[in-house]
Structure formats: structure tokens, C-alpha cells
Design a protein that fits this description.
With 137 residues, this protein is mainly alpha-helical. 53% of the residues lie in helices and 0% in strands. The longest helix is centred in the middle third of the chain and has 14 residues, at 74-87. The protein is elongated, with a radius of gyration of 27 Å.
Amino acid sequence: MAEHARCYGRDETVLVLDHYLPVLARKPHAAMHAAVVAQMPPIYAAVRNRLCQRRRDGYRDFAAILLLHQEFAAELVQGALEEAWQRDCLEPSAVRQLLLNRTAPPPIVPLALPAALVGTQIAPPDLGRYDQLLAVS
């Protein structure tokens, strides 16, 4: 079951991308004429047009980019598309990497070593003791 916002005006249609994604996974060419793309921000149409100008099967890459909405929030995908547009790297794998970079946890900052431990030396273990245990049995 699906929930949609109610339309109060004439000739209004509410389209939800999530409903199109299973079809786009099976039929990527449908991304070229999907009405839901017309309701999306303009970057999507620009990316679709550029991908199709570069290659005959650019619609496959565009469908793969739309399928990223299954993993990431729409705002993140749109932001990554805009960054990919500026960098001119519109391949789905590049857009996905930008998304992963944006959603990665912050790097772990190493703790400062206390001054009391700065000069401490730890002797390596004597592994010969394990040989002694084997000799006992």
C-alpha cells in the first residue's frame, strides 16, 4: 500500500520515484521517458541528457544513478549529482563514491600519548616459552 499527498488542483499528478525504481532496474530504457524525472530537480534532466549525448546506452547509466535512491536519501543523491556535474564525472560508480564519501563516519583521531608513557619501552615476548610447553607434553 502506498501513501501519496492529495492533489487539490486539476490535472495534478503526484509521482513517487520509489514506485518506479523496480521497473527501472529491469527496464533501464524506461528512465528516458519516465514522467517522474520531469518532476525531479533540473540536475536530473541535465545529467540524463549529457549521458545520452555521450553514449547510445547512456540511459543505463542514468537508470543506475536513479537506483542509488534505494540506498541513499534523495537530498544526498541530488547533492552528489551536482558535485559530479561540476567535476564532469557522471558515471554511476563515481556518483556512488561521492555518496559514500559524504556518508562515511568521521575518521578516528588518535589519542595523545600521556607524558608519563612517552619513553616507555616494552620488551618483545619470548616465544621460546611456547616451545617449552610443547616439549612437556
